[in-house]
Amino acid sequence: MPNKFLTIVNRHYPPNPGITGESAWDLAQYLIEYHGFEVRIVHVKRSDLGGGAVRVPIGQTFSIPTLYKGKKGFLKLVAGFFDGFFLIIKTLQVRRGPVLCMTSPPLLPFWASWLFPLFGVRWALWSMDLFPEGFAADGVIKASNPIYRFVHWVTYRFAPSALFALGPNQAFYVQNSYGKKIATTIIPCGVLLNQPLDPHLPSWRLNDDKIYFGYAGNLGDAHSDIFLLALIKHLNPQKHHLILALYGTKADKVLQIARDRAGITILDSVPRSQLRYIDVHLVSLLIKWTHIAVPSKAMSSIGAGGSILFCGSKEADTWALLQNAGWHIDENGSIDNQVELYMKNITLQDVKKRKQAAEQVSTQLKELLIKGYEEIATFTQK
Q: What pLDDT score does 54 carry?
C-alpha cells in the first residue's frame, strides 16, 4: 500500500480535453509510476475544446457537476465562481495528503486561500492562468473596482506552502502579489513527458518545399487576431502554407477572412501528436496579459520539434524560455510591417536552424518538468 499521498484539484481532467487536465494527468502518472503515490484528482464533470489526445484517467478521480455548460459570458463567470467553491468543498471531503491546487476554474485559488487555512490543509499552488487579474486584463472589471480589490485581497491573503509557476517571470509576479517569498519551482505547461508523436504524415502536410505555419488552438481574449490576420495578408502561397484550427472569441472573424484563401487549410483541430509537422507555430499573448497567462501551445510546439513566431512582450515567459527556437514580433510596433518583412525574408534554412535549436530547448524544458515533479514529490513529504 502506498504511504505517499497527493490530492490535485482542477477544473479539467481526462477524458475531458484541455492542457491543464493533461498536465495534471502527466504529473499523476509520474508520481504513481516513479514514487508509488496514491493520487486523488478532484475535477468538474464537463468538456472543453482542445487538441489533446483523449487519455484514460489515472489515479482516483472525484467529479462534481458544473452549474452551466453553455457559452454565455456572464453565466459562465457565475458558474465558474461557484464551481470553484464546490471543488474545494469536495476536496476537503475526499482529500488524502496535501493538496495541489491549480487555477481553473477562475477564482479557484480565491476559495483555496480562504478555506484551506480555515481547515488546516497544507497546500501548494500550481499557477496556470491567473485570476482575478485575467478579468481586469479582459476588461470585465476595473482593477480599481472594490469587488475586484476584495477578491484580489482574499486570493493573495494566505500564501500556500509552495508555488509551482509556469515560468520565472510569472513566479516573481505571483510572489509579489502574496507580498512574501514562497518556495518556488518552475513547471512549464504544455511540455508533457508522454507527448504522443504520429509517425504518419497528415493529409494536410504535403512533400513540398513550402514552409508550414500553423495556429492550432485558442484565439481568445488574451491573443492577437491582428497578428494572425497580418500573417494571412502577407502569406505567399508559392512559398508558404498555413494550417488553422481555431476556437475562441476571435476565431470566427479570422476564419471568415481565411476561407477560400489560397495556401490555407482550415481544420477542426490538430492533434498534439501532429504538431511536429508544422514548421513555425504562431503564438501571441497581448502585453496586458503578460505573466497572467503563458500560452501552453508554445511549449507543446517546441516539445514536438517545431519553432515559434511569437507576438507579445519579451518579458513574457514564452519568450524568456523559448527565444532560441523562435522569432519575435513586437506588439508595440507596427505588427503588419514586421510580419511583412519576416514573411519576405524567412527561408527553409532559417526554419531548420530554429527547429534544431528547439530540440535543445525541448530537452531543457523536460529537465525543468522532471525537476518540478520531483519537487512536488518532496513537498508532500515535508
A: 62
C-alpha cell at 318: 514564452
Over residues 75-86, the pLDDT tens digits come to 777 888 899 999
The share of the chain scoring above pLDDT 90, in percent, equals 81
> Distance (Å, rounded) from C-alpha 214 to C-alpha 302?
13
Phi, psi of 33 (to 5 degrees): -75, -40
How many angstroms separate the CA atoms of 348 and 188, rounded?
28
- Supply the pTM of this predicted model: 0.90
